[in-house]
Amino acid sequence: MVFRRLAVAGVSLAATLQAAVLPLAPTAAAAPQAAQPLHPPLRAISAVDRAAHHTTARTRAAEAPDIDVAKVQAHLTELNAIAARNGGTRKSSGQGYRDSVAYAKAKLQAAGYTVTEQPCTSGCATGAGPNLIAEWPQGDAGKVYMFGSHLDSVGAGPGINDNGSGSAALLETALTLAQQHPAMAARVRFGWWTDEEQGLNGSDFYVGSLSSAERSKIKAYYNFDMIASLNGGYFINHLTSAAAQPMKAYWDSLGLQPEENTEGAGRSDDYSFEQAGIPTSGYAMGASARKTSAQAAKWGGTANRAYDSCYHQSCDTTSNINATGLDRSVDGIAATLWKVAVTDTAPANDFSLTAGPAAGSVDPGASTTSTISTATTSGSAQTVTLSASGAPAGVTVSFSPASVTSGGSSTMTLATTSGAAPGTYPLTVTGTGSVTHTTPYTLTIKGAGGCTAQQLLANGGFENGTTPWTGDTGAIGAHAGQSAHSGSRFAWLGGYGSSATDTLSQSVTVPAGCSKATLTYWLHIDTDETDRTAYDTFKVMVGSTTLTTLSNTDASSGYTQRSLDLSRYAGQRITLTFTATEDSSLQSSFVVDDATLQTG
Length: 600
Fold this sequence. Notes:
- The protein is of the alpha+beta class.
- The chain has three domains: 69-341, Aminopeptidase, CATH 3.40.630; 350-445, Immunoglobulins (Immunoglobulin-like); 454-599, Sandwich (Jelly Rolls).
- The chain has helices at 13-20, 47-60, 69-84, 95-111, 160-180, 201-209, 212-217, 245-253, 270-275, 293-299, 323-341, and strands at residues 7-8, 11-12, 114-118, 131-136, 140-150, 186-193, 218-224, 235-236, 259-260, 280-284, 350-356, 359-362, 367-378, 383-389, 395-400, 403-405, 409-416, 423-432, 436-445, 470-471, 476-477, 490-494, 500-509, 517-527, 537-542, 545-551, 560-565, 573-582, 588-599.
- A hairpin with a 2-residue loop joins strand 25 (537-542) and strand 26.
- The longest helix is centred in the first third of the chain and has 21 residues, at 160-180.
- The N and C termini lie far apart (76 Å).
């Protein structure tokens, strides 16, 4: 835990600490004698405490695991050895800190975490090592619960309680989560912070680097700093807050009667998150402040002595660890994590799909690529098959590989022929697994280009089923009561004699090099309306723009060929729509056949 921060609401921390009357820790010479230990030795956990954990606490923790405190202590032993190899310290700017990061990172990567080293590029001490971030890649990515501790020590000692205890507890909790692999309702992200002892600098840099959208995803941050103090108490940050309730419930189940962490307020990394408006809580067992008589009566230990007599000193080694407190803390961390992020019901397997880049330009005859990335957003990883639609003539789209396991990526290659028409074309990339997701990609074929005369509408005579028409495709068929202009099928819009609307749409790309594009269609209108008022209408639209409107007043005995100029849409992807609308009485039928969109 950092000794001071610069300011609190415009008041210096030095003044704040003086007002709080927090005495300094006694010297090593004043420490309790070994004949009268304050707590059980390093590996001795009371039978009563262990039994309580296996009964009441376990059932209240929604099947949270019992974290093996011996494994937490093994991490502390290694952190102590790292400090011993590096001048007795793991300060943020030294090799001891960087070795601590490497130790934790290797274990997290082997367990399957997404692990990132984040260099602190501003605000940190010269030479400070990186933050270490590890995220478990399961659960709702829009709902993140974060658990953090600072990994650095002061220069004067190895920092095994401050803060190897929080760091090791989080590391073993993370490894247990990976081993248990429960169904996740939310994402869990762990952070080990650099340069806390110099002013909360690593966590401050991390929070400052988050976008507002990323900050909003973090539903709570839990901090663990000095959770194994030899003469410690049981303290919770923001004890009465909603974020604190899972932590308090666990310690309450052990009869510990935790108190508010007033000594640590604003002095550890939770403050960086709190300042950004993120709910925070966490465990602590105290630093240089002294235990009261009431606390000693409640928790044991020695009244009027510092919670940690080795705070910020060289004696903060593995001999400075309260194993019972460490065990209660790490099991409470697991209970909290399981409460907020684990679900009893396995969520449906789901994934996300993105294209990077999401647009590309290419000369006719050349090719371009994009990386199609997937991620598991809930449940387990699954096979995702990739495809693309919307490519114009002269463009082929391929994927390598054609299928990926969610979390993997594929290279999409868009190859064009020399005759591909210049223009901008919106494509849709589709990923199909247990569910289907799409992502857009925009392809621009450069050059003015020429124009190859062609007919762009597909199935304009309605003889080949309904594809690719969308909308009220039940209007397409060989219906009794009307006849086709050619062939046997047509689209009969309207004709109900009551309030109704029918639409048929098709999307096409008009090549950029074409100076002329003409829509031609045959339309037969018959009606039971008897006067010359337009009660029932037929519209042709491109997008939201109406190109023409006809009505019951245009009725005739047979088909009439009609044409519209669509040349202004050259180089665009358009949606062409036929819409018939009737009022509440007297039918009007609008029968469409043999539609074409000819370029030239």
